[in-house]
Amino acid sequence: MAKTAKEKFKTMHDVFDDFTNRNIYKMISQGYFEGMIGPISIGKESNVFAAKTKDGKVIVKIHRLETSDFNRIYDYIKYDPRYINIKKNRRLLIFAWAQREYRNLLKAREAGVNVPKPIAFKFNIVLEEFIGDDEVAPQLKNSVPKDLSGFFDKTIENMRKMYKAGLIHTDLSPFNILNHNEEPVFIDYSQCTTIENPNSLEYLVRDIKNVCLFFRKRGMKIDEEEVLKKIVKKKNV
């Protein structure tokens, strides 16, 4: 990377810790992307950026190493059989949290769920497909579908596919469903859990409630019990 590019990069990302900056540089040198474009969202537990590639854009999601809610993360991950031996070490937990997002996205995508394609992960950094055209696709909360009923049915069908694959999002809402050309795209998969989690049904009911509330406020009549039945039926078919 040229000196001027490095200086620009450093100025843009001086909010990152040195460890994260080093690994962003490594991913650039490995050819995953050419450089950051700008922030998409800045949160308490993660920062999401668009990055430039030779062919377009990717999403770079950086999980914060110091400010993440350790206890909340551990409560989600401790029941996941893939991480049953995870230690109560903050840094290792955040690394597992990022890896878990990558693996959950991969599993959901293989099940036919409309999610961003996971590209790579390194420690606390996850690279994902950029969903959108020139700009990132809007969150559902900011982009009401023209065909409410059709969009709702597609959303529930994606939830059913997830459940059939043994996954529950646990934090599904209009904030992490994108409206991309009238198609729902689910994002934010670190907290996604398996149905082996003893709280899985509670999480699923909460997801259904959050989704139904959005559409109910816009005039749709929805029976949440019927929605639950549609999602959980024929899991093993």
First CA to last CA: what distance? Answer: 52 Å
From the spread of the alpha carbons, the general shape counts as globular
> What is the CATH architecture descriptor of the largest domain?
2-Layer Sandwich
Q: Summarize model confidence as the mean pLDDT.
A: 89
CATH class of the largest domain: Alpha Beta
User: Could you name the CATH topology of the largest domain?
Assistant: Phosphorylase Kinase, domain 1
How many discrete domains?
Answer: 2
* Fourth CATH level, the homologous superfamily of the largest domain: Phosphorylase Kinase, domain 1
The helix-and-strand class reads alpha+beta
How would you characterize the largest beta sheet?
5 strands, antiparallel
The tally of beta strands, per DSSP, is 9
Rounded to the nearest angstrom, the radius of gyration is 18 Å
Residues in β-strands, percent: 15-25%
What is the strand arrangement across the widest sheet? 1-2-3-5-4
The share of residues in helices is: 25-40%
Number of helices: 7
Can you describe what's shown?
With 237 residues, the protein is α+β, with helices and mostly antiparallel strands. It folds into two domains: 13-129, Phosphorylase Kinase, domain 1 (2-Layer Sandwich), CATH 3.30.200.20; 140-232, Orthogonal Bundle (Transferase(Phosphotransferase), domain 1), CATH 1.10.510.10. It contains seven helices and nine strands; from the N terminus they run H-H-E-E-E-H-H-E-E-H-E-E-E-E-H-H. The strands form three sheets. A five-stranded antiparallel β-sheet has the order 1-2-3-5-4, sandwiched between helices. Strands 6-9 form a two-stranded antiparallel sheet. It is globular, with a radius of gyration of 18 Å. The model is unreliable at 1-11 (pLDDT under 50).
